Amino acid sequence: MGILCDLIVSAKDKNKDSLMEIINKFRPLIKKQAYALNYEDAENDLIVDMIELIYNMPFFQHDGQAVTYISTSIRHSYVKFLKQRIRLRENECIYDPDIIKNIENLSEDFEKKDLDLLFAIRKLNYNQKWVIIYKFFFMFKDKEIMNKLNISRQAVYNNKNKALKNLRKMLEQ
Fold first, then answer.
1. Where are the beta strands (DSSP E) in 16-126?
2. CA 89 – CA 60 distance, rounded (Å)
3. What is the pLDDT of residues 84-110, one digit of tens each?
4. Residue 52 to residue 34: CA distance in whole angstroms
């Protein structure tokens, strides 16, 4: 058993000095990933994830195993926080007074487009129509659609793609 493994065992027993020593050993990797995340508390978030990791990680015989495990986990935490940031950016709303003034015009436009979409969906064949309805209106997963329509997953995928292609053609005309 190596030095790092001893520190991990000690840290699991709530020894703060051992925990700080482990964090300091991995601080360069944490700083690198925090810099890549590019937000204020990224380093703290990665450290908190690492502390949780240390308390929950399995026992290793060699330091190399522990180093690899912790390094990989830090990278996985980086990916997790990056995905959260991307989702947050996608869901952010920018306030623009001009857009708010035109809501009535937009709602009329949407009603017309909704009707066009409804008529276009009605023109699709049975499977394509129901795949689109289940997928985009009821938010069913492919597996649920597969069970409802008694078709294979591949058929669900193919029907969805064909239906979207047909809808694009119909709505462009």
1. none
2. 39
3. 888 887 776 666 666 556 655 655 666
4. 17
- Dihedral of CA 117/119/125/131: which sign? positive
Domain boundary among the residues 76, 91, 106 is at: 91
Q: Which domain covers residue 59, as residue numbers?
A: 3-91
d(CA 132, CA 36): 39
Q: Are residues 61 and 127 both part of a single domain?
A: no
Residues 23 and 47 in one domain: yes
Domain tally for the chain? 2
Q: Which residue has the tokens 């053609």?
A: 169
**Selection from 138, 129, 139, 126 nearest residue 164 by Cα:** 129
Quote the pLDDT of residue 40: 86
Structure pTM?
0.52
Burial class (CB in 10 A: 0-12, 13-18, 19+), 51: middle
